[in-house]
Amino acid sequence: MTAADYAEFSNYAVASGTIVLALAFLAHLAELLFVRQEAVVPASVAVGGGDTAVAVAESDDDVEPRSAVLSRIGIALTVVAAGLLVAGVVSRAMASNRVPWGNMYEFGLTGVSIALVVYLVLVRITSVQWIAPIVTGFGLAILGLAWSAYVPAGPLVPALHSYWLVIHVAAVMIAGALFLVGASASLLYLLKERAELRGNVGPILRRVPAIAAMDRLAYRTHAVGFVLWTFGALIAGPIWAHYAWGRYWGWDPKEVWAFITWVVYAGYLHARATAGWRGRRAAIIALIGFATFLFSYYGVNIFVPGLHSYAK
């Protein structure tokens, strides 16, 4: 295959992956709708009364809830979408004969691919499929931004010719995937805690784990992500900057916001370890940290001119 063939295959794979991910997102939304419907089925069955109600209840015991079926369908579609997007990333790399993160389109594509793979691994290990609507919806949004910044496959600008770029971006993207999982757990924590305080926990929030379990998951994923962010953004990044621009740190907007993200997450971990900030306050700080990460990842390149503007 020629470089043009690989580039065309990449475009088809990414487009197909985007469509499949959209179907996965819709499957998980439908799952939530059926969760609400299934929550009122026992009350409707009981209206029949007597032996009829018992017979219907017994017959329903052998029928798998539609929400469970849709959950499995959504996960399966996410697996397919992740495979297609990874194929798109690899073929994009072969088309341009370089690592596929030299511009905003490639950043978005590779970032979503890594986030989906990390999410699916965690689903297998710790059963975090309850954050599926957030992860798939967020992935779709980032892919939409990536497509809006699409550029054909081509060579890197000179500043990007360094293996430290590979290390720097790979670590940052994996950290971002873990931050996404932690932010999802933190958001659901806040929603469920508020519902519990009001005494009105609906069927959807009853499906997610206890708030203490979500708090622990958020802490663990943020802790690992913070280590990777520290290495990728504040160690490998400056080394690459020295190779590219002759200095380790120059207060470029991208560098500043990467440092702001580091400070917020460092504050999150420090507050939990020393001041006992768990639960609601920790979740709010985690969401602030994720917002700074998103601005560092996308907003700076779009809205704030700097040395990283070539990556648009």
Write a structural description:
The chain is mainly alpha-helical. The chain has a domain at 157-312. Helices cover 79% and strands 0% of the residues. It has eleven helices and no strands. The relative contact order is 0.10. The chain is flat.
Class of secondary structure makeup: mainly alpha
Tell me the span between the first and last alpha carbons: 28 Å
- Helicity, in percent? over 70%
In terms of DSSP E residues, the strand content is: under 5%
Largest sheet: none
Q: So what's the overall shape?
A: flat
Rg measurement, Å: 22 Å
Roughly what is the average pLDDT, rounded to an integer? 86
Organism: Aeromicrobium alkaliterrae
Domain Cytochrome c assembly protein: 101-308
Membrane topology: Multi-pass membrane protein
Pfam family, one: Cytochrom_C_asm
In short:
With 312 residues, this protein is mainly α. Helices cover 79% and strands 0% of the residues.
Notable traits:
Cytochrome c assembly protein domain-containing protein; mainly alpha; 11 helices; cytochrome c-type biogenesis; 312 residues; flat
What is this structure's SSE topology?
Elements: H1 3-38, H2 41-46, H3 50-60, H4 66-96, H5 104-126, H6 132-148, H7 163-198, H8 203-207, H9 211-245, H10 253-274, H11 280-303
